[in-house]
């Protein structure tokens, strides 16, 4: 019986790869292993993540989520990340070591509290959303925020079904 890659189902040159921040080891092809290691070239080959992220195995979900997070600049990957629901423990493992924490950037709310990927924040001011034609009202809860990795003053979140960039100075951690 041949072993196939847990992410893309390739069967040649599959080898064991430890999954960072977990005790799991996955059988991965060289391209998927390199992608998890940070050496990733965006392209259509990663469309296999749409199936892998819904796997019944937590380790495969974690690896697929991390790869999708690395590809979130591509619209399809960001849309898929917004649709995926993982168990809270699995999501916490998937987010471990990803984002601004790894680069030493602190995102802080209006009161100085440190924000983390996946936090829920509340808007403290009405915000006009440019290009979307609506105003995000004060008191609106924004769940599952994403930290902008290279800008400590910005986070991303969904308000009224729109993914928007929000300045940290206009939110408080819930």
From TrEMBL:
Xref: InterPro entries: YjdM_C
SUPFAM superfamilies hit by this protein: Prokaryotic SH3-related domain (SSF82057)
Domain Protein YjdM C-terminal residue range list: 107-173
Pfam families per UniProt: YjdM
Protein's recorded name: PhnA protein
Native source species: Paragemmobacter kunshanensis
Organism phylogeny: Bacteria, Pseudomonadati, Pseudomonadota, Alphaproteobacteria, Rhodobacterales
